Amino acid sequence: MDFRDCRLVAKLRILYSVTVEPSGRFVVLIAKWTSRLTERNKQVTSSCYGAVAIAQPPQTTTTSLTSTAASPQSALIRRGIQHVSKFPAPQINCGSPHSFNRNSCRRLRSLPSNWAGDSSVLGACRNEGVVRCSAVSTEPFGEPESSSSDAEVAPELDSKQVLVGNTIVSFKDAFWRFLRPHTIRGTVIGASALVARALLENPQLINWILLPKALRGLLALLCGNGYIVGINQIYDVGIDKVNKPFLPVAAGDLSVSAAWALVIGLAALGVGIVATNFGPLITSLYSFGLFLGAIYSVPPLRLKRFAVPAFLIIATVRGFLLNFGVYYATRAALGLSYQWSPSIVFITCFVTVFATVIAITKDLPDVEGDKKYNISTFATRLGVRKISFLGSGLLLMNYIGAIGAAILMPQAFNRNLMVAAHAALGVALVYQTWVLDSAKYSKEGIAGFYRFIWNLFYTQYVLLPFL
């Protein structure tokens, strides 16, 4: 795979730059980027870390700077990199995510912000499928252009500044990956939708003074989310080295002791926020959720080893505890007693089934590592194809049930929206299942299918306030 296979560089985030001595003219960026590739006529999205060269001295080959997914910065430092600094890159050459092939690179040059650009150049850029650039040239690497700004491009910093800057940037990236962003999105969207639904049911009670309390509640939920996914990474480090080597503990970007400090801090902060803001019932439910997250991952119980207890825990936390807890806390903050509304009964039942689907499909990309470590999941026991169809079937029943509820109880729901939205989502689900089957359940196809399941999950909560 080389850069000629790239159809879209969706994101390119510079982590930091390095300058190779003694010439000082060879600048390399350590970057994280997301590429959409075409493999066997299927669109595959992959996130990569690597060394991206932006200039080279004469008689120096860039092919020696191959990236390592686990820790690209350490690979470069071992080759004698001495100066590290953060800076806005004046030009970027995008290379292969896995190996550097200078003949297959495109040179992207960021021009001054006040430059309007030439339509033909920008058109060529768009035709190459490259975004977030001002101009593009297809010329291969060669001698870097003479410039008096080399010193400005990579200013030398003293060793303490280098160490602090490098540590902060590396920890920030590792911490974000440690929190598992797709689960954070689910928590934020779900909690926001439940609060919005409670407010729309009682618009006369909306009071902006309550906003700080709502934000504290959201922070507590994110802390709980981080604790659960974090403790799972600590105890799954061996499995993750096979299944998810990009996770920070498995990759070595975050030590186990640092991970423990984070999960303990997140749990303490979350419980403290809930206990001081939301009363004994919500505090008890929150603590129970943390307990379930612990016994899911931590020996001797480690219930994730067993398929049925594992999906029951996920369904309980994502289905009942989140929906009931957030809705109850919101009504209590508004001065109202708890009352089940049709929409909350619907979303609680719907998401509980949905969380069950997530629980059984989340292991689809992990079959290899789970078999190696004797983790019993539905995917390892029944096979990827059967579990994919089982998950799709359960979700399809969920959508049919939602359509039936809208038809039978038009007074309780926005019937037109509920029928149309769930019919469309059901059709999209059937199509995505067909795509996975056509891809012969390749690793990339399975990963795309699982991401699609999460996107359906987000969509359901986005619809909730309007149902």
Automatic annotation (TrEMBL):
Its main location: membrane. The chain crosses the membrane at residues 254-275, 281-299, 306-328, 340-361, 389-413, 419-436. It is a multi-pass membrane protein. One of its GO terms (cellular component) is chloroplast. Keywords: Chloroplast, Membrane, Plastid, Transferase, Transit peptide, Transmembrane, Transmembrane helix. GO terms for molecular function: transferase activity. The keyword Transmembrane applies. It is found in: Membrane; Plastid, Chloroplast. InterPro entries: AtHST-like, UbiA_prenyltransferase, UbiA_sf. Belongs to the UbiA prenyltransferase family. This is AT3G11945-like protein. It comes from Riccia sorocarpa. The lineage of its organism: Eukaryota, Viridiplantae, Streptophyta, Embryophyta, Marchantiophyta.
